[in-house]
Write a structure and sequence with these properties.
Elements lengths: L2 E5 L8 H19 L7 H6 L10 H16 L7 E3 L5 E3 L2 H18 L5 E5 L2 E5 L7 E7 L2 E11 L2 E7 L19 E8 L2 H14 L4 H5 L5 E6 L9 E2 L2
Antiparallel strand pairs: 1-4, 2-3, 4-5, 5-8, 6-7, 8-9, 9-10, 10-11
């Protein structure tokens, strides 16, 4: 997926290029460890029985625990344990690990004194605003017409994550039924953590309108949901 970083203030400060390079190194390391498309990743070897959980690096165990917490937080609408071949359960943390990895890379930028940046991975974004700088403005596209924006979100520090059917079709499954969901066309979640904004967006899409009740209980997060027509509720902002 396309990943970009935009450093707005102090882009010519010494050390910025090295910090950005380190952030991308962090993302490449996460891909090597977690990618379900790489046969040599720890996740792939774990699922094939070639590696025990105890033999995995600490980040794998951390992500497994976060996935279990995500399942609990979302009433089971986020579930990284999927049916695999021969009745085996397959661990696929993709719905959480992208936001988690991008958030870690953003934290690394901040630790290296990059104070004003937007780090965007396929539309899931972590942002920080430098002193005296205007807040970032993040557009939410219409899933029925990506050329049109439904809303523009001002964000000073935090994250924006979107899950939807506009780009990839009905690729999200309801974990309770195993069937693709299409009651909502997209869900965008805004909050302090990209890890959890990404989880909540995915789970809310899986749960449809009934998932908004638990989404409202998540302190510090709010959402925009678009129904499957791309019209009704397209500009509804849920203050959570």
């Amino acid at each position: 997926m396309p990943i970009s970083v935009h450093v707005r203030a102090g882009a010519d400060t010494p050390g910025i290029a090295a910090a950005v390079g380190a952030a991308f190194d962090e993302l490449r390391a996460a891909d090597r460890m977690f990618s379900t498309y790489r046969p040599d990743s720890q996740i792939s070897e774990l699922n094939r029985g070639l590696r025990r959980l105890a033999d995995c690096d600490q980040p794998v165990r951390e992500v497994l625990e976060l996935c279990e917490e995500a399942r609990w937080r979302t009433d089971g609408y986020f579930d990284a344990m999927l049916p695999g071949a021969n009745g085996r359960i397959r661990f696929d943390p993709s719905g959480l690990v992208k936001g988690w990895a991008v958030e870690r890379a953003g934290r690394l930028l901040a630790e290296r004194a990059v104070a004003d940046f937007s780090l965007n991975a396929g539309g899931d974004i972590t942002l920080r605003t430098g002193p005296g700088q205007p807040e970032w403005r993040v557009g939410v596209e219409d899933p029925a017409d990506p050329r049109r924006l439904l809303a523009v979100l001002p964000v000073r520090h935090g994250a924006v994550a979107t899950s939807g059917t506009g780009r990839r079709g009905a690729h999200i499954l309801d974990p309770h039924t195993g069937r693709p969901v299409n009651a909502l066309a997209s869900v965008t979640v805004i909050g302090p953590s990209l890890t959890w904004a990404d989880v909540y967006a995915t789970a809310a899409l899986a749960g449809g309108s009934r998932s908004l009740s638990w989404l409202r209980r998540q302190t510090g997060y709010r959402a925009i949901a678009v129904d499957d027509t791309g019209e009704t509720g397209s500009s509804t902002l849920y203050a959570l």
